[in-house]
Specification:
The chain has 82 residues and is of the alpha/beta class. The chain has one domain (5-80). Helix content is 29%, strand content 21%. The protein has a four-stranded mixed β-sheet with strand order 1-2-3-4, with no helix packed on it. The longest helix is centred in the middle third of the chain and has 13 residues, at 43-55. The chain is globular and about 30 Å long. Residues 69-82 have low confidence and may be disordered.
């Protein structure tokens, strides 16, 4: 069985955590959906995630929504096709 959906929502993820996550997910080409809602992601963490996305050969549905309380980003679902 392969990993297709991953929800890490409501975990406070800093840049280092996102780098570790991206590194681990790079070995999972079957992943089609990544949910990171309410993770309080900062720009540097999103940049780390962006590097992972550029290396993918398959589209990935991503959800990075923020709660109104102190969240810095509110990015609705995007389909990244490279």
């Amino acid at each position: 069985m392969s990993l297709q959906f991953l929800d890490v929502s409501q975990n406070s993820l800093d840049k280092k955590a996102v780098e570790y996550l991206a590194s681990a997910l790079a070995t999972k080409p079957s992943l089609v959906s990544l949910r990171m809602d309410d993770c309080l992601l900062r720009a540097s963490a999103l940049e780390s995630l962006g590097g992972f996305l550029l290396d993918r050969s398959r589209p990935l549905l991503i959800s990075v929504k923020s709660s109104p309380r102190g969240a810095r980003f509110d990015i609705a679902k995007h389909i990244v096709a490279i």
